Amino acid sequence: MSEEQAEEEENDDSDENDELVKAIKAEKNKPRTHPPAITCEDFIVDISFSPCKNIIALANIVGDILLYEYSNEETKLINTLELHLKACRAVEFDDEGVTMYSTAKDKVIMATDVETGKLKKCYEDAHDEPVYCLRTLDNNKIVTGDDGGTVKLWDMRKETPVFNIKVGEEHVSDMLTNEDQKYLVCAGGDGVLNTIDLKGRKIYVRSEDYDSELTCLGLFRSDTKLLVGSSTGKLYLFNWKEFGLHSDDNPQSGVFTQGGGRLAPYHIMGQYIYGKK
After folding, report:
1. Which residue, 44, 77, 82, 130, has most beta carbons within 10 Å?
2. Can you tell me the mean pLDDT for 139-145?
3. Contact 57, 73 (CB under 8 A)
4. What does residue 270 show for φ and ψ, rounded to 5 degrees?
């Protein structure tokens, strides 16, 4: 190879390196569209976003709640709350983001002031069985479901539950209501969807038995449709107020088919929300 050819090859390599460096710099200078990842030492069992601030609560398997402030540029740990003696099961903010509710395998329900980290309310031995899930109804009321199928409604202004009701023999995996808060839908480990009449304090309806655990619930289409997930990955679609039997499911296709139309999935914050396509 001549000296001239060697020089040309070196210049080509230099140009390629320059382009690579430029591409790397351009990528670094791109505006971020989402917060950086949060890495934790302990397994995270539940999360909750504050409704009014850029704060996320992470509940972990050793009983702690970690509060992170986030932006597209950074995530910053602002508080570590050592609340429970056993693994956390659920964490939720109230509607104003002022109070954070948590529960754990230790059967304790806690209400904590988000700003100060101080305990506002504590219910010890809140259930006979470990609490599995928790949902807020308003700034004073919450509902909890346990490993034995019991659901309780709590008012933070009272020392005992407003009422409790047995909805099944296995754990209550998720609960959900809508803005009217007339019905509380409960998904169970026994494969049954139980709906509680909150005002009447009684079971409104029990669904047919499904062949797998019902694991999660979601509302969409202006709260007129209820989506129920199962441990086998199968999804069931219910009309709101018609909780006895699903109106559609997705056994194979991965999408719902209803009335000749097609319901396509939309991925929002880690959940699939289905809308007509």
Report:
1. 130
2. 96
3. no
4. 80, 0
Task: Give per-residue pLDDT as tens, 69-88.
Answer: 999 999 999 999 999 999 99
Instruction: Please tell me the total number of residues recorded for the chain in this structure.
Output: 277
Read off the tokens for 224. Answer: 């007129």
pLDDT digits (tens, 9 = 90+) for 99-120: 999 999 999 999 999 999 999 9
Give burial (CB, 10 Å; 0-12/13-18/19+) of 274. Answer: buried
pLDDT in tens, 232-253: 989 999 999 999 999 988 754 4
| Cβ atoms of 72 and 86 closer than 8 Å | no
SS3 137: coil
Split at pLDDT 50, 70, 90, the class of 2 is low
Q: Tokens at residue 205, please?
A: 């309806």
φ, ψ dihedrals at 124, nearest 5°: -85, 150
Q: In what order do the strands lie in the sheet with 261-268?
A: 256-258, 261-268, 271-276
Check: CATH 2.130.10.10 for 34-166? yes
Helices (H), the chain: 3-29
Spans of all domains in the chain: 34-166
Strand partners, 104: 88
Instruction: Enter the pTM of the model.
Output: 0.79
The token pair at 142 is 């919450």
